[in-house]
Design a protein that fits this description.
CATH class: Alpha Beta
Structural class: alpha+beta
CATH architecture: 2-Layer Sandwich
Low-confidence stretches: none
Largest sheet: 3 strands, antiparallel
Radius of gyration: 17 Å
Number of helices: 1
Number of domains: 1
CATH superfamily: Rv1738
Length: 93
């Protein structure tokens, strides 16, 4: 039997004078994740120096890609921790 699950990622982008900041939050329905929702997030930013040409789309892409990269690391770390708990017998998954 095949079961499909759908996870969503919300991305927030905030522009400041000298940098663009982004946050990627994983939304897992029914509380199926082992970490609380506020911990399933990644952040990233892009910075620019005075005098640099600003192309906002590129600034956004850099900040968002870094936030997604950070979120991927959070998920990987969570999976490794959960797997170790299951293998050691201390987890209930």
């Amino acid at each position: 039997m095949t079961t499909e699950r759908r996870w969503q990622i919300e991305i927030f982008v905030d522009e400041h004078d000298d940098h663009t900041w982004a946050e990627a939050r994983l939304v897992v329905p029914d509380g199926r994740a082992s970490k609380p929702p506020e911990q399933l997030r990644g952040t990233g930013q892009s910075r620019r120096r005075n005098g640099e040409i600003v192309v906002q789309e590129i600034e956004d892409e850099l900040a968002v890609s870094r936030a997604l990269w950070d979120l991927a690391h959070v998920l990987w770390t969570t999976a490794v921790t959960d797997l170790e708990a299951v293998v050691s017998g201390s987890g209930s998954r």
